[in-house]
């Protein structure tokens, strides 16, 4: 948008010439009086009135000629002050040099704004893509910036966090520690081992703090999973080498049964041999199947599921001890129903086995927690084992356990962009398993 300016060579010349023109009526009147004199008083009053009117008209004309370029200049400057860099003045007028400088300034500011917006957009996209939680606090230790990973870590919405102090968010201790540290910590949205880094910031002459929290446990778990996948391939190869001769022996026995005549005790021997072979083959098959679940877990097949119906159906499968259901609100979740059912079966099995052969109840409940659906399986057993390896594949505290139940639950939860944790009950003995899943997929 261009503002048209009068095309007079120089502003100073315009002011000078206009001032001379304003003085011209008075000079002309004075010249007439000097040359012709004053014929009468009325003639003199008329001449004075004419000079005053002419001078006023010329002064008004001069004022407009001077003020219009200044108003235009003021409008351009006001637009720049308000952040509107689209206005431009037409160069070559009486304020040509000034307009040129203002236009150049507007171009520079517009370019800087564009670069700032692009940098801010890039920064926002970068922070959103980071797995590390990023928090920025001002000089009063109030939160001013947080990325999505930080929201997930604190299990809260952005509007709930902004303006709160680091102490209110439970992060002040991390800011007061060493600049870089590895520690085990429990956050509202996750627990595990974290790398914590913080540094001082300055913005507009004021201090601030940057806090970055990285979940190193997830990275380590991924490395563990890959290592166990390689191990499972070796185990599968070795066990299959054992299955092959067993199956061959079963085939040989079956062919011997077809002979005629047969020994008198052939039935007992053959039945015993076949039973042993079949039992061993089935046991090895179950061994491979259970240990291969971690490596062969397929991607979730997403569909809408009524959470209450899925939990109630799964709870009915456990018959060894009563399973008490505390009904919650009706929730629809977008999940792989088969995988979620398997995770719940594993949690229920662990809860029941923690209480056998004693008495008590296993309780299942669910509720909405912000944007997550939370499922809790609670037992009244001996309590939480004193180990940090409960979710490590093949680690078990139960005699004869496979050590894949909790590891599989965590893998299923993380595949659904959720998580799982074990905590002690608030009252009494026992363990509460807490599994959470997003109600809406990102």
UniProtKB/TrEMBL annotation:
<feature type="transmembrane region" description="Helical">
    <location>
        <begin position="43"/>
        <end position="61"/>
    </location>
</feature>
<dbReference type="Pfam" id="PF02518">
    <property type="entry name" value="HATPase_c"/>
</dbReference>
<protein>
    <recommendedName>
        <fullName>histidine kinase</fullName>
        <ecNumber>2.7.13.3</ecNumber>
    </recommendedName>
</protein>
<keyword id="KW-1133">Transmembrane helix</keyword>
<dbReference type="InterPro" id="IPR035965">
    <property type="entry name" value="PAS-like_dom_sf"/>
</dbReference>
<keyword id="KW-0472">Membrane</keyword>
<feature type="transmembrane region" description="Helical">
    <location>
        <begin position="15"/>
        <end position="37"/>
    </location>
</feature>
<feature type="domain" description="Histidine kinase">
    <location>
        <begin position="234"/>
        <end position="441"/>
    </location>
</feature>
<keyword id="KW-0812">Transmembrane</keyword>
<dbReference type="InterPro" id="IPR003594">
    <property type="entry name" value="HATPase_dom"/>
</dbReference>
<dbReference type="InterPro" id="IPR036890">
    <property type="entry name" value="HATPase_C_sf"/>
</dbReference>
<dbReference type="InterPro" id="IPR004358">
    <property type="entry name" value="Sig_transdc_His_kin-like_C"/>
</dbReference>
<dbReference type="InterPro" id="IPR005467">
    <property type="entry name" value="His_kinase_dom"/>
</dbReference>
